[in-house]
């Protein structure tokens, strides 16, 4: 599928559904990137549904605690938990996953919302470009490390937990060059200083990270045995007012401001999509397995994703991602061997 500019505009001007509501009594909901923007607005919606536990995974203690307090003030929900994790630091991610593993609790909904919007190359201490590590290495690492908890929850409580990965319609407007697809270590190439500082690569970095979110969702779903009682999907919140574009300056910032005035959803409206992906189709959740969701329905992904070159890229990126994560966290190897085909 191709997404034209006019199709994008029509989607932004279309009437949006009200937020999906489900009784979450007894259940645990965990959101990455929960202290601001789409993550916080989605958290507010979940808080109104009486979850037993609502975990806000945030990078900053001060901002995270402020979010917990505002959540209580706005919704009356007083059981929110703040857990710290820095997705730009693999050690922090491992500590976060270890904590959840040791906590021993159930996990019914995991919404992976964290992202970085930048056009500047900046490496993490682990040696990868920051936005790619956050969105396309640490996000998969959290998903894989918490997958056993979700499967255990399903088995013990006869439920179908959901893993929701936030992507974007911008994946329709990006592909990966053939020489990069054919490189021996595709993820390392995409995250390297040599590649990122060539030409205008970083100008489209956000588009790439969202494409890789779609690839990971599809690759993970393809490797989960059909009998696995966990629904994995990816969702597009639409073009919303967002802090992701706070780096924009000059003409670019001015044009984006005009676009926001003409087209953007409020952050709350965009967050309804995340909630829909996590809660909709309660009577037929299989309809959302492995799917890309936008405007409260399943939609075909981009032509590039569906092409032979895209399929090749998806498999190579999956294998390269696993190679990296197995070295970062040895527990990944056992999880893959036990739960993935």
TrEMBL record:
GO terms for molecular function: oxidoreductase activity. The keyword Oxidoreductase applies. Keywords: Oxidoreductase. It comes from the Eukaryota. InterPro entries: NAD(P)-bd_dom_sf, SDR_fam. This is NAD(P)-binding protein. It comes from Mycena maculata.
């Amino acid at each position: 599928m191709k997404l034209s500019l006019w199709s994008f505009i029509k989607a932004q001007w279309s009437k949006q559904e009200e937020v999906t509501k489900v009784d979450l009594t007894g259940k645990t909901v965990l959101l990455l990137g929960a202290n601001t923007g789409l993550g916080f607005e989605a958290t507010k919606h979940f808080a109104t549904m009486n979850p037993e536990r609502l975990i806000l995974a945030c990078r900053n203690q001060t901002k995270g605690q402020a979010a917990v307090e505002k959540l209580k003030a706005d919704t009356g929900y007083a059981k929110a938990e703040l857990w710290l994790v820095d997705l730009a630091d693999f050690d922090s991610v491992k500590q976060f996953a270890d904590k959840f593993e040791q906590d021993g609790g159930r996990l019914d909904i995991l919404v992976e919302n964290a992202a970085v919007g930048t056009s500047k190359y900046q490496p993490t201490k682990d040696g990868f470009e920051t936005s790619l590590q956050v969105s396309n290495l640490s996000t998969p690492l959290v998903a894989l490390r918490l997958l056993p908890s979700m499967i255990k929850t399903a088995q013990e409580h006869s439920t179908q937990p959901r893993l929701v990965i936030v992507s974007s319609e911008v994946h329709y407007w990006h592909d990966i060059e053939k020489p990069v697809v054919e490189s021996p270590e595709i993820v390392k190439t995409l995250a390297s200083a040599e590649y990122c500082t060539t030409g205008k690569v970083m100008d489209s970095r956000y588009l790439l990270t969202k494409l890789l979110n779609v690839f990971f969702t599809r690759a993970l779903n393809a490797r989960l045995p059909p009998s696995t009682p966990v629904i994995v999907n990816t969702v597009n919140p639409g073009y919303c007012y967002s802090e992701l574009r706070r780096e924009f300056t000059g003409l670019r910032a001015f044009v984006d401001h005009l676009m926001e005035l003409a087209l953007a959803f409020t952050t709350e409206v965009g967050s309804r999509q995340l909630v829909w992906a996590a809660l909709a189709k309660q009577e037929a959740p299989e309809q959302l397995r492995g799917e890309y969701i936008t405007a409260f329905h399943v939609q075909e992904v981009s032509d590039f994703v569906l092409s032979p070159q895209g399929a090749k890229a998806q498999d190579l990126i999956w294998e390269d991602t696993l190679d990296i994560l197995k070295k970062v966290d040895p527990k990944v190897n056992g999880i893959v061997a036990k739960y993935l085909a």
